[in-house]
Specification:
Two copies of one chain form a homodimer. A two-stranded antiparallel ribbon of chain A has the order 1-2. Helix content of chain A is 46%, strand content 5%. By secondary structure, chain A is mainly alpha-helical. The two termini of chain A are 33 Å apart. In chain A, β1 and β2 form a beta hairpin. In chain A, α1 packs across α3, α1 crosses α4 and α2 packs across α3. In chain A, 36% of the residues are buried. Chain A has six helices and two strands; from the N terminus they run αααββααα. Chain A binds a DNA duplex through α3.
DNA sequence: CGCAATCTCTACTAACTCGATAGGGTATTG
DNA sequence: CAATACCCTATCGAGTTAGTAGAGATTGCG
């Protein structure tokens, strides 16, 4: 199970993707997606630190997507928010760590068993983008708002 | 990341698989795999409740595999020990639950995005067995002990 | 039988994580 | 210069995780 944080992160990213370069403010995202405002703040900060979104302070501030939706994979967001995706530390590429008790990785049957499963799921997670996720639910999209003509954030 | 419990469970199952119908006692499994004995007890109990292993009490007691290693999938063990595998409650087949805040599952882009990734990883997890995991590390197997001629547990 | 060995069950605990809240700090704009 | 919106850090309650503890049930052996 992915964390609530991660779920909020995806929702926020999708809303921001729909908002386009005009961007949105925390309050509006929070309201639209029913996310506690201050909690969302932290999440957006993480996404910003990860280089996915940008922000502007002050009265007309807000957030906007920095990368386009087609190039944001589920895996990258998940890793950014929830940490390593690998089932075992010794299988992670981005956060490798030897298992405390494991004397030999080559002989570890647990590791061998999970290696393949991990590879398969990672491949899909890296290949699937939030743009695809959005497209898959476009039959009956939720109320779409016309982008206001205001200074672009991107 | 899978839990420590789950890792111990896999190690215990693999050791039991090697021990064959003769079975093994908690103490020996714990010692061989460097697992806290009382902690391992609880884990073996769960595996027994899940129908994977059997046990006998008393002086010549111990545990033994009930199903053969070829028919124990990584997924089944994982689900038994760590709970649902699905990334979202609304995607789980064995523990379905509506997401609290989600108004419509058909329109949920997060759900749509993860559906495919989940399917792929689940397929592999269900298809991979502990027998395969063992086989993959058979080049240099750890010290194999000749099964003692004692009453079979299976 | 009686004792010892082994599994069974339940309770408990320290440390950590998760979701959420709070509040003051900093930049930007009217 | 004050209102507004993002920035940063601390804190908290609830729940989970890893591990410990101990009393009880069952079996084998002398």
């Amino acid at each position: 199970m992915i964390s609530q944080r991660a779920r909020y992160a995806f929702k926020a990213l999708i809303v921001l993707a729909r908002a386009g370069s005009a961007g949105m403010q925390i309050r509006d995202i929070a309201e639209k997606e029913q996310i506690p405002r201050k909690f969302l703040e932290q999440i957006l900060l993480s996404l910003k630190a990860g280089g996915l979104i940008t922000s502007r302070r002050g009265r007309e501030g807000g957030y906007a997507l920095l990368k386009n939706a087609e190039s944001i994979s589920l895996g990258s967001v998940l890793r950014m928010i929830d940490g390593p995706i690998a089932p075992l530390p010794c299988l992670s590429r981005t956060a490798y760590r030897k298992c405390d008790d494991c004397p030999s990785e080559e002989l570890c049957a647990v590791r061998a068993g999970f290696a393949e499963a991990y590879e398969a799921s990672l491949r899909v997670l890296e290949a699937t983008t939030i743009a695809q996720a959005m497209k898959a639910t476009e039959g009956k999209p939720q109320a779409r708002r016309v982008p206001k003509t205001s200074a672009s954030l991107a």
